[in-house]
Design goal:
Strand content: 15-25%
Structural class: alpha+beta
Number of helices: 5
Distance between the termini: 27 Å
Number of strands: 10
Largest sheet: 8 strands, mixed
Low-confidence stretches: none
Mean pLDDT: 94
Oligomer: single chain
Shape: globular
Order of helices and strands: EEHHEEHHEEEEEHE
């Protein structure tokens, strides 16, 4: 499914996009098929390939770009985690152990690399084959499929200035969101929360 101004979320098509909160912190957003993407992003020319370039940078696969964020005290916080994606794990301790094991095996290709090596927040959209199958474990409120929840948070945040200038225009900007405070982002409000691109 091609990303353009007519795109709609749906089962089977997972896209990852990037955004900045009102304090300049960066987040990586995984839509898991059901999360909306901001219209300002979808209107960009060649948006898919531009997102691919930023994703390749994050996963250590880029031959053109590198991220200049390096901090010796960088670590992470596990905030909420997907019930669906961790069915075989009994509790938060086992989820964290699995994350650390993956990071130890493949540091550049693991979820923990997002907060530790890049200083990004990592949000995932609620997924599942029916409403209620998936939810962010630890969150006490109600969520809908497509709502974004904060999965991992960095202890040291990077900024837009740490990204290559050529990739900054694909980052969506919010004047109201605070990643430190907001653990759930309502999917129906994504276009009100993120209204323009970095320029």
């Amino acid at each position: 499914m091609t990303l353009n101004s007519d795109w709609e979320p749906g089962f089977g098509s997972i896209f990852t996009w990037f955004c900045m909160d009102k304090h300049g912190r960066i987040a990586m957003m995984v839509n898991n098929g059901f999360g909306n993407l901001p219209r300002s992003l979808l209107r960009l020319d060649d948006v898919e390939s531009r997102l691919d370039e930023l994703n390749e940078l994050v996963w250590g696969e880029s031959e053109r770009f590198q991220h200049d964020f390096h901090h010796p005290e960088a670590s992470y916080e596990l905030v909420f985690y997907s019930k669906c994606n961790n069915k075989g794990l009994a509790d938060r301790g086992q989820v964290e152990a699995s994350l650390l094991q993956s990071f130890g095996r493949v540091p550049e290709g693991s979820d923990l690399s997002v907060p530790i090596k890049h200083g990004f927040y990592l949000y995932h959209a609620v997924e599942g084959s029916f409403q209620g199958e998936d939810f962010p474990v630890g969150y006490q409120g109600e969520v809908e499929m497509g709502d974004y929840f904060k999965f991992l948070a960095p202890t040291v945040s990077s900024s837009i200035d740490d990204l290559p200038a050529e990739l900054r225009g694909v980052v969506c900007i919010s004047d109201v969101v605070d990643f430190e405070v907001q653990s759930i982002l309502d999917n129906s409000e994504i276009n009100d929360l993120f209204v323009r691109q970095y320029c």
